[in-house]
Amino acid sequence: MSTDQARAAVAPRCYRHPDRETWVSCTRCERPICPECLRPASVGFQCPDCVKQGNATVRRPTAPYGGQAVARAGVVSLVLGLLNVVAFVVTVATAPGGLSGNTNSRLFDELELVPLRVAVDGEYWRLIGSAFLHIGLLHLAGNMLSLAIVGPALERLFGWWRFLAIYLVAALGGSVAVYLFGSPFGAVAGASAAIYGLFAATLIVVRKLGLDARFMVLAVALNFAVSFAPGISLLGHLGGFLAGGLVALAMVYAPKRSRTSLQILAIGVLLATMVSLVLIRTDMLLPLAG
């Protein structure tokens, strides 16, 4: 037997690539692996299968109020911001007046919150669709700046679906407040209710963590002071702040043992309550159509 034949007879072969000789073994399972299969480990190298098994047994870090911690905080905030921007661009592009008259676009007309049109025509999508519309560039910029400031930090604390729940329920809460107590003939649009819901959530988290909340309280107070200006929906801001705050309270103070179930239950109860109030208000508005 030649030297080459003897070497081939005793040289280990990579278990994933049988045609490759190797003298390196996985430090975990001790099977031979070739250079292509080497994966750095804390001690030596491991094969891809052992690395995969090890990752499966490692617990991912959890967010403070339930669920897995987000790998990249701010993704949901970015998506929400893009949706608002896209909606604004569409209204500008399709409005006869362009940037200075985007409220005249068809999309704006289809989504803005007009309580009487919701009641008479059953256009309940306006209650949430109006939260993605903005009246002019300044309106959009103010809301998106606020979202960029408070959104990513809350997203990191709550995780993506809890953060999204606060945002959307707050947006709906603002619309419901306008629907219940606002003028049946008025028109309202904007993401401000959702933003105020995030403000409420931030206040609750700051208080829960025992941090100094004076700066946030001042910021919220100033925003509410601006809400009294003509053309701004104070009802929408109050409704969003209340709804977002209630969801955040459920998220933050739910007992750890049954946290997720109670959080979902609280959101469900709040949504059911708002739906009931909307239906009651609809019955009250229908006679006005005659």
Describe this structure as you would to a colleague.
- It is a single chain.
- The chain has twelve helices and two strands.
- The protein is mostly helical.
- Strand 1 and strand 2 form a beta hairpin.
- It is elongated.
**How far do the termini sit from each other?**
105 Å
Number of helices: 12
What is the β-strand count?
2
Strand count, sense and barrel status of the largest sheet are:
2 strands, antiparallel
Outline type: elongated
* Structural Rg: 28 Å
Strand order of the largest sheet: 1-2
**How would you classify the quaternary structure?**
single chain
The helix content is 55-70%
Please give the structural blueprint.
Blueprint: H1 3-10, E1 39-40, E2 45-46, H2 48-57, H3 75-94, H4 106-111, H5 115-121, H6 126-129, H7 137-158, H8 160-181, H9 192-208, H10 214-226, H11 234-253, H12 259-285
Antiparallel strand pairs: 1-2
Helix pairs in contact: 3-7, 5-12, 7-8, 7-9, 8-9, 8-11, 8-12, 9-11, 11-12
Give a concise summary.
The protein has 290 residues and is an all-alpha fold.
Keywords:
61% helix; 12 helices; two-stranded antiparallel sheet; mainly alpha; single chain; elongated; 2 strands; 290 residues
